[in-house]
Structures are given as C-alpha cells and as structure tokens.
Protein 1
Amino acid sequence: MAEHPVQVFIYALIVSCGIFGNALVLWIAADSTRENRYLASSDLILMNIAAANLMISLTRNTLLLTFDAGQSVSFSDVGCRLMMFIWTWLRSASIWVTLSLSLYHFITIRISRTMLGKLSERRKVVMALVVEWVLSLVYASFALPYSSNSKNNSTNNFMVISSTLRPLLGCVWTFPNEVSGLTYAMVSVVIHEAIPISLMVFSNSATLLFLYKHHRKTRDVQFSSSHGNTEWKAAKTILYLILLFIFSWGTHVISVNYYNFKGSPSTRYMLIIARFSASGFVGFYPLVVVSGHSKLRKKMRNILKCGWLNFVQQK
C-alpha cells in the first residue's frame, strides 16, 4: 500500500538531494582537482563520504521510495543476501570515513606541514581510506550467509538495535540462534557505531577547544589570525556534519527500537520518523559541505551562473 502523497513527496526530495547533491559534490571536487592538478587530503575524504552517500541513495533509498509509492519491491534469497551485503558495507564505510574527516582535522591542525609532508600525509590518508573500505567489506560479508527474504526470523527483534543491521524490504538476518544474532548485533553497535561516534564527538570537541585557545594567543597577529579563521570555519563545518550524522543516527535507532519493542498501530509514525532520519545525513550532507567549503561553493556558484546564462540566451 502506498504511503501518504505528502510523505512520498518529501522523501522524494530528500532522495533526490542525496543523489544529485552528492553527485555534484563529487563532480565539482574532481573538476577542481583536474584544474589545480592537486587533490587535498580533506577533499579526498569528502569525496569518499559523498561516494558512499551516493551509492546508498542509489541502492537503498530509491528502492524505499519506490516501495513507499506503492510499487512492489521484493528480492529472492540471493538478491537479499547481495543487497544486505551492499547496504551493510556502504553504511559501515560511511560511518568510518566520516570519522576519518574529524580525526584528520584533529591531527593536522596540531602540526606544520611542508609540501613533502603533505604528499606523505595524502598517502597515509589513502591507505587509511582503503583499510576502512576493505574492513567494512569484510564486516558486511556476514550478510552473505546470514540473510534471506524469509520473514520468519526469530532474531529479528535483536537486529534492529543497530542501524547497520536493520532488516529492510523483506530482507532479514537469519542467524542460527538468538545468541549468535544478539552477539553480532551488540558487537556491531559497539565497534561500528558507539566507538566511531564517540571518537567523532571527542576529536571535534578537542579541535574546537584547541582552535579557541590558539585564537586567544594569536589574535593580534594578522597572518595567524587569518589562518586560524580558516581552520575555525573548517572545524565548524565538520562539527555541523558530525551533529547531523549523530542526530540522524540517534533518531533512527531510537525510533526503530521504540516501535520494535512497544510497537502498535498507534506508534507506526515512529517508522516514518526512522525512514526520514535514516536518509537525513545522506540527503543534507551536500548542503552542509557546500555551505562550509568556500572552493566548492565558489565552483557551484559559477556552474549555476553559467547554466542560468545559457538558459537565458536560449530563450
């Protein structure tokens, strides 16, 4: 049965923003790299987050939108294993790559870097990103033997305590017993959600505190103050991203589990909240990045300006 048209319309806007916004961030960053013949480590991390969000939008959110619109969406056992593997992989990678952005800024503001140091730093960032994607791939591989389209899953109630393990579109986790299912879910919550999110909060808070103290010491020095203002803007942008991520994640987990353990027809609205919050970070990430990244914002402004001029000339 189709959801309310207003709900479908709003969700379609979020999904569209997630697809076109993240694709635009990737394209602008890649085009800027081509022009400058240099890719900053921070931009590389931003591109990885945008890539993960874009793939989540294409492989997950578009299917949910189709389902909400009243179309039938179902998978075979093999299809469920494959899709659960992809969804878990992308969700886990998104969490760890987002943490990388916060940790990267936390580390780099404390050290001075030469050009040679920046090249060495970028190699380390690339290696860290590769490790995060590969480990997330290994973690998600449990979905291949332990998921199916069967709805008779006794461990279903335990699986939804983790946003990376939530059953979706008829695809559920089918562990041999409740103990193994609960163990895997709890390990997932601690390692892939609680730890990285705690580190995000700690590293970003420490970065803001460091910049505040540095600003007080160097506010009379023009160059240091200018550099500090740039770092301060970057820290605030990262803080907004982290807050958006935590809000989306927390709202999703709380809503799903509230419905799961106290579910009734009167509390179905919690699933609607969970649906929107699960896609919130993916959809609004491009807006936060562009608003806080001066180079991306300038590039996007030029693109929109050129597009508008071409449109006017054609008229």
Note: Strands lie at 147-148, 172-173.
Protein 2
Amino acid sequence: MSKKWYYVLAILLAACSWIGNVWYYEANQLGRTVFLEHHVETREGGGREFDLYYVEDKQADKRLSSIRFEGYPGQIVTPYPQYAEYQRQYLGKMMVNLNAPEEKGSGEKLAEPVLIREVTALYSDGSSEQVNVGEIYVWPGVNHQEEQDPISWTSGGSSSDHSGYDAAVVKRPVQLTAFSSKLLDIAEEGDLRIYADISSQIPGTSYRSQPSEAHIELRGEPINEIQLPLNMNKGDSIRISHQFDMPSLESMQVYQLLMKTTFMEKSGRQWHGETVIPYHPRPTDQELSKFVRDSRRAP
C-alpha cells in the first residue's frame, strides 16, 4: 500500500474519531433546563423554606436566572446555580420562601392547601416559560403562640443518609389523635419509614441532638401501627424519627413532607406540631447520566 493510502486511512480514522466524540458529547447534553420531579409540602410565611432542583448543561446557551410563583408577590427566591458539579452538567436549586398570597374573594383562610404544579422559569437571555415541577402543596399560614402550646418541641437532627428526628415534651395532659400529611402515600409504599417513640420521662428532659453525620436510629413503632387516640401526661415525651429507603430509580425525585401531629386537650382544643421530612437528591454520576438520557427522550 502506498504512503498516500496510509495518509488517507489516517485522515479517515481521525475523522471517525472526531465524529464519534462529537456524537458522544451531544448524546450527553440536555440542551435545555430540566426540573426534577418534586413532591413538596410547605406553608406560607413563617420562614418556611423549600428547594426546587434542576439540571443544566455546563455549556448551556442560556441559564435559569430565577423562578416565579404566581399569586405570591412577597416570595423570596435564592438561586444556587452550581449547587453540585458533574462532568457535563450542574445540579442547581432555587431556595423558595412563599410569603402570604394575594387576597382573593372573601379573604377567608383555606382549610386545605393550594396545589401548584407549574412555575414561571426566567432565563438569562430574557426569555421565560411555564415549567412543570411536580406537586407543591402550600398550606395557609398560622398565627401560633408557642408559649400556650401544650407540647414543647425541644430538639431535632438529620443525617446525610436521609434520616432524621424531632423530639418534644408534654407540658400538660393531651391526647395524641392523628398523624397526617398530603404525601404519606410514600410511607405506605415502603420508600419512607416513620416511627414514633412515646415514653414517660422526667418533666423538662428531652432526647439529645445527634451530630448531622450520624445515622439517626428509628425508635418506637411505625406511626400507622400506633393505636390512636393515645393519652399523654405532663412530662411524657414523643420522638418522631424517619428514614428514606428510596430505590435508585426514584433517586432523582425530591420530597418534603410537612407531617402534622395533632394533639387535643380535655377542653376539645386542638394543637398541631409539624415535622419537616425532606429527601434531597444526591445523585451519583451514573444516576445523573441516566437522568440526562431519559430527559432527552422525553417530549
């Protein structure tokens, strides 16, 4: 074979390699901003925050600048565009605080939450679009007087393995009557375990906080196995602990339960404690690559 053909073959191999690299690069690009699927409960005002996560290419032509929820003029949105870095993409998030909404109609407080499925995405080039983010349940704000509450929430902790707990002490006799959340289906499906440990202790004592990197032990019984109503006396304590066991197929979903624990005094007055139960994604490179491929195939 002459030298000319060697040169031609070398050029063809280089061209094929270049085309292959370009194809592989393009196959691993999103080409747009994609939000993760969210299942979130939150409350208006009161400093209650939640995060919305999204994925963008590092070499994106335009980037997400902010988001807007319609009907909440006092909303506070704080962007973290490079919350986590991967080989070709960034995992970003928007930290959101929804203050009181616009007054509509009679101005009466709703007993049920508002369900939001779409937000307005605002981009660096001045464009905007409506995007689906999953389901965001926004409960109305409450006027809470902590000094009158018969339950004192004293400590809490969380861990990097998606476990956590909250603990409280009873200040005067009550009945524990219910555990509730709009998103408790995930516990019934086995992807989230929630336990309650109810015991008698010396008044004023509580469970000690655990370091954030430690595993939070589940104690007591699953909440769906506790016989309610349950009488609690002054000095008794309750510790609510949780552990997510999310399968890898759902690791790119976001959860935040606002689990309500309902107590009732002898007078019939009800009090509610709230436990925030979050699942924030920490995808591996493989999980993010699969998310990119699946998102490219989606319409």
Note: Helices lie at 3-27, 185-188, 285-297.
Protein 3
Amino acid sequence: MTYYDGDDEVVPELCGVAVMGDEEGGKGDYVGLPGEEAGDWDGVGVGTPRRGRFRKWRGCAWYWAKLIFLFGCLGVLAAACVKWVWPYLMDNDVIPVLNWETTTFSPPVLAVLVVASLAIFPSLLLPSSPSMWVSGMTFGYGYGFLLCISGMSVGVSIPYFIGSLFYHKIQGWMDKYPKRASLIRSAGGGNWFHQFRSVTLIRISPFPYMIYNYCAVATNVKFGPYFLGSLVGVVPEIFVTMYTGILIKALADASHDQRALSAPEIVFNVLGFLSTVAATVVFTIFAKRKLKALQKEDEPLQE
C-alpha cells in the first residue's frame, strides 16, 4: 500500500515488515499496523499471522471431526436398520405383499396394471414408484422398461392436455411466483431443440415432475419437444426405481428362505446400489447446472 505526503511524493507503507536487530541481541522488531497485537506475526521476513493459521487448522479439524461423527452415526443407524428394522419390514410387509401379488395376478394382468397405473397416477398426483418396483420385480429390466416407458408416455401426455384447459389460471399462478416459475419458463423459449433439451433437464433435475406436467403447457412448450424430452428425461428414474425393486425382491427372497446372501451377491448389490446413487447425484448436479445456464441465457429474452 502507498500514501501521499505533503509534497505529493509517493511513499510506500510497510505492513508487517521485519526490521533486523543489532548484532548483540540477534532479534529484530517489525513495523505493524494499528490494532495488531504482539505475537500475531512470525517476526521473520514478511510475517505470516500465527493466529490466522491456528484458526484455519482448528476450523479444518473441527469440520472433519463433525463429518466423521456424522458418518459414524449414519453407519450405526444403517446397521440398526439392517439388523432389526429391515427383517421386520420384510416379514410383515414386503413378503406378504409379494406373495399376494404373485398368487392373485398373472403376469399379463400385472403388465396391464403397471401400464394403467403409470398412465393414470401422474394425473392424480400420485407417486409411480410402486408400479415401477413391481415392474422390475416381475419382468426384469427389459420388459419392465418397455412397460414403464409405455405407461409414462400416456402419463405425461394427459396432464399436458388437461393443463391446456386451465392455461390462463396456470399462467396467473406462475406470475404470482416469478422466481419459482423462472425455471420452467426457460423451457418455453427458443427453437424445437432448445425446448427438448430444457424439458429433458427439468425431468432429470429434482423439480417435482407431477407439477411440471400441468405447468408445461403454460410455458408455451410445444407438445412434440415436451413429449420426447419427457420420455428421455425419465429414463434414469425408471432404471433407478426398477433396480430398487429388484434389490428389494432379492433381499425379500433371502429373508423368506432364512438364508444369508453370499459374498458375490453382497458385493454385487452394494456396488450396484452405490453406482445407482452416484449416477443419480451426477445426473442431478449436471441437470441443475445446465438449467441455471439456460436461465441466464433466457433472462434477457424474458425481460
């Protein structure tokens, strides 16, 4: 830093610069800023604040201590769930439902029920995950995916056309909450590909998809990019939910047979679960970043 004296001459201002002492003492002193306390600087060359470094290391250690404590508590909670809660749920809820399902409905009837529920539930704002679980448990990834994508193709279309009947009311609601609606409004501008990409990212992001089904038409998104973008965007959700159902069935079978999972089964299930969680997090972060970028691009156009 510098300042100007009375003669307009630039004079450097020294901050924490050590001044070497005489030969007898062997120690120097330093020129400090007002408000500094002794011992805040190392006293060698240009000083480094000791207190600042101590606070930094203390904050870092405290952060890692809290993180380790949090993961420790989560580990204990997970172990307790696996030991006591999970067997109870398996024996009293999951296994009876699976037995009732397999003895009451044949596979063709279950296929019709899965498609029908995925087509109707989004319009009623009901979750579709149980239907995807059943699809994965009964039909596996191949046929299960075809059933899910067929049902959801109808499930995302019906709310779009119902929302068109309440176009002005939905727009009025979006005008009352402009910040919340700015995310889905960004999908309504641009060309066909821009709308398709925006709808796909909204489906992958954690935005409530059942609400977007009704609000999409009020953002002036055409049905073509909305439909195709919705189908592409729900693919990760379908596979994640089906995998969850298959994992639940595998654990239920092991609990019903009173046997423990083998080492390869444990490794496969753990790796599969971790991969599923990691993929979900990566897709969500990627979609949120892309949506923010699209919002910034569309802000000048909306203004």
Note: The CA atoms of residues 203 and 209 lie 6 Å apart.
